[in-house]
Amino acid sequence: MYTIGHILKEIREESGYLLQEVQQSVDIDFTQLCKIENGKRLPTIDQLQKLAKFYNYDDKLLIIHRESDKIANSFEYPEIALETLKVAEDKVKYGNQYLPMFQNTIYQKPISLESRRYIGSKAKLTEWIMDLIDKETENVNTFVDIFAGTASVSNQAITKYNQVVINDILYSNNIIYKGFFEAGEWNEKKMNDIITECNTLNPDTLEENYFSQNFGGKFYEHGVAKSIGYIRQNIEDMKTELTEKEYSILLATLIYNIDKLANTVGHFDAYIKKPIKPQPLRLRLIDAQDFDNVEIYREDANKLAKELKSDLVYIDPPYNSRQYNRFYHLYETLVKWDKPRLFGVALKPAPENNSLYCTTKARNAFENLVIHLKTKFLVVSYNNTYNSKSHSSENKIRLEEIEGILNKCGKTKVFECSHRFFNTGKTEFDDHKELLFITEVDEKRKSKSFASVLCG
Q1: To 10 degrees, what angle do helices 171-180 and 329-336 make?
Q2: At a CB cut-off of 8 Å and minimum separation 6, what does 48 contact?
Q3: Beta bridge mates, 313
Q4: Helix or strand or coil: residue 333?
Q5: What is the largest CA-CA distance in the chain?
Q6: What is the pLDDT of residues 345-396, one digit of tens each?
Q7: Helix/strand/coil (H/E/C) assignment for every residue in 303-316
Q8: Contact 349/340 with Cβ under 8 angstroms?
Q9: In sequence order, what are the residues at sequence separation of 6 or more whose Cβ sits closer than 8 angstroms to the Cβ of residue 289?
Q10: N or C: more exposed end of the chain, with fewer CB within 10 A?
Q11: DSSP state of 111
Q12: Closest C-alpha among 341, 405, 400, 345 to residue 370
């Protein structure tokens, strides 16, 4: 039976929160929250109202589901007793198949950009970043997000600035930007009809395919993997019938819907070596928009820097040895759909587009980037994991190096914000902070500081 605990867990994961973050915000004991989500404890009305307020969901709907789990003779909210009994009846009648029914009621809205799991995501820091930019800069019309990642910062910038440039070297991120942001013709009914057809698939009737043969039973439950491969090939087969925008929307929709079903800790460097619980794959359309003030690139940031001229450049490069193209290789393979030969336990293709920022050359790469950027303001995100106990988590650019390079470009201010860091291993790191450098570029100082490089 699909319980209130399952529903609360679904809402939390959809919102992108860790259980610890919820506990700290709603002041409910962590052990109690675990038991509630595991179905071992029924939440109180007060707890549900706190959670509903935190998740911005209708507390009445959650209370109905809570009451339906009790299937009792007395109700704390008798005015919704009939609705509660009907929900309880449906849960018993449909069992695990109740999930699609529930999604049709509570998850009607499209999937938001911020709901994806991604290392280094700035989704929960975007408001702080944009507020500081508003306060510390002026006369900004053109905004460049040169290592866009999840594009949560770009998503906010689009509504504030006349022109926004979004860039990332990953194929999967590029297709996501196009699906969510790029202006282009697309038919919402057509998209929903295709998705509805995908949601009627029975994996038991599907043949094995490239995706299921390689990733089934590892990164995804085998039936789900068959569905993913079938849907991906179907999108490719109908490509001539789709506009570029529609093609991007469908691929981005597929990525966002399979993200929470992956048998991983949030990336594809490895999969969890445990049996995978079968879950239905049910697609829901992304929140696709059309913006005329957006330019989207898939370029090496240091090369693109030589071609751009802007008022402000936001820089959030990778700082440690984790190569994003390797962490998200499965999505890269899914988008490119070139069906490459795969290697190793994690089933990765041959390396492509490795970043210098994940190597000992990171400092030189960063310096080269800022030297060639033609902009009035440089805004750089940085986190203080440079003292991490994990070698892979340790930053390749030191705090002092970042600050020293930026100071050569102009007056630099540093701001900090406490922030829980992404950790999938056993690394312990206290007092984690996100730092933001804002530099007002002085072209004379910059030219003098890097004269030998610029002249060369």
Answers
A1: 70
A2: 4, 59, 62, 63, 66
A3: 144, 378
A4: helix
A5: 84
A6: 999 999 988 999 888 899 999 999 999 999 999 999 998 654 544 444 466 7
A7: HHHCCCEEEEEEEC
A8: yes
A9: 180, 181
A10: C
A11: B
A12: 405
219 contacts 262 by C-beta, under 8 angstroms: yes
Would you give the end-to-end CA distance of the chain in angstroms? Answer: 69
Distances (CA, A) of 130 to 162, 436, 448: 15, 11, 31
Enter the pTM of the model. 0.76
Q: Which tokens go with 350? A: 């041959």
Burial of 357-378, coded b for 16+ CB within 10 Å and e otherwise, reads bbeeebbebbbbbbbbbebbbb
Alpha-carbon distance of 143 to 386, in angstroms, equals 28
Is the CB of residue 315 less than 8 Å from the CB of residue 380? yes
The residue type of 80 is: I
How many Å apart are CA 317 and CA 367, to the nearest integer? 12
Using the structure block, give the residue that is written with the tokens 């860790």: 18
Q: What is the pLDDT of residues 195-210, one digit of tens each?
A: 989 999 999 999 999 9
- DSSP letter for each residue of 163-193: EEEEE-S-HHHHHHHHHHTB-----HHHHHH
Token pair of 168, please?
């990332």
The count of residues in the chain is 456
CB proximity list for 410: less than 8 A, separation 6 or greater: 378, 439, 440, 441, 442, 445, 446
Partner residues linked to 294 by β-bridges: 164
3-class DSSP state of 258: helix
Q: What DSSP designation does 79 have?
A: G
Residue 275, helix vs strand vs coil: coil
